[in-house]
Amino acid sequence: MDILETAAYDRRQRRNTYCVLLLSLSPFFLAIAVYFYLWIPDSSPSILAAAIKAAPVISLALLVLSYKGGRSLLGVAGGLIFSAGGDCCLIWPELFLHGMASFALAHLLYSLTFLSTRYSSPSSSSSLSYFFYLLLWLLGGGLYAFLFPFLQKTPDAAALTPGVGVYVALIILMATLAVRTRRPLIMLGSLIFMTSDLTLALQTFKVTEPLEHGRHIVMTTYYLAQLLIAVGDIKAAEGGDEFAKWKKS
């Protein structure tokens, strides 16, 4: 088999792999379709509403487990499971702190995963990377400072104010380590996750009036972020510097 035949064979193998992965994502897309079709109002919290909301993320957790095995329970699959727990908690407003804690644990597991050897890149960080890291932390600090007076007005200010501070630090840490991986799917997923959380925070803490399609924006960006992180984790096993390949393509 010469070089051209080998390259063609590799392309066919990659194409087959992508087709299998796409088919494996069918439960996720079906669960999302059910969620948006039923669109149970926030004013009607129930176990059914919690299950429907968490189903897409649970399907992603099962997919990552099927590819990565039990060890991923301490990584992205575990983070997805904690995220599903957070989804369930946020159905009931009185469980907001519990939901935030679940998502904080999810970000911690994502962060630990992005530090693993599977995500190590042969390329050293450039000055541009360090600038972007700094930008993320300045953005996180600025956002928390902006939210602080609004947090002080909430009934649970004593617990919520430091809790949000810890949460912001963990999601910024996750995003920083995601950028460090130099993997486009992981980087995009982390940044979109931040966008989703920012949209939710502005409405939850009454910084802005509820947006007309605010919940649609939050949930669409949230599910997209989790999808990108899950698929990015599955593809991480391929190795190499994905960012470099992406720039060349």
Automatic annotation (TrEMBL):
Reaction(s) catalysed by this chain's protein: a 1-O-(1Z-alkenyl)-sn-glycero-3-phosphocholine + H2O = a 2,3-saturated aldehyde + sn-glycerol 3-phosphocholine; a 1-O-(1Z-alkenyl)-sn-glycero-3-phosphoethanolamine + H2O = a 2,3-saturated aldehyde + sn-glycero-3-phosphoethanolamine
Principal subcellular localization: membrane
UniProt family annotation: Belongs to the TMEM86 family.
Top enzyme category: hydrolase
KW Membrane (keyword) present: yes
Coiled-coil spans in chain: none
EC number: 3.3.2.2
Keyword set includes DNA repair: no
InterPro entries: TMEM86B-like
Alphabetical UniProt keywords: Membrane, Transmembrane, Transmembrane helix
Subcellular location: Membrane
GO-annotated molecular function: alkenylglycerophosphocholine hydrolase activity
TM ranges: 20-40, 46-65, 72-93, 131-151, 157-178
Highest rank taxon of the organism: Eukaryota
Protein known as: lysoplasmalogenase
